[in-house]
Amino acid sequence: MENLSLxxxxxxxxxxxxxxANIGSEILLTVFKYVYAVGAVVYTVARxxxxxGPEDSMRLRRLRRMEMWAGFAFIIGAFFWFYNSxxxxxxxxxLAVMRDTIMFTLAGxxxxxxxxxxxxxxxxxxxxxxxxxxx
Length: 135
Fold this sequence. Notes:
Layout: H1 2-17, H2 26-48, H3 58-87, H4 95-134
Helix pairs in contact: 1-2, 2-3, 3-4
């Protein structure tokens, strides 16, 4: 599931970065709008699957659930890309169309980074506690 979520994040990144290569192409913008949306769904589905082990603490389970909320932020960003492109049909790729998408993508990325750091720290702490309890 970690690899699947990584593929989703790569699709998200490609969907956001690629339109800057050719801003005037409506076909390219439409393709990468769908690439972003597919990446958001793939990432969220990968994070919704329970990957916790039976020995994991409740805190670690909650931290992994927090990553799922990052996926929801990405999905909301995809929704706004579709919504704003329909709302401003003649504008193309601009701040009016991408403002909400970029905002929710940054919010999801922030949630992802914080939860990743906290999961790594918690796993390290639990491993140390297991080693100390065996002594």
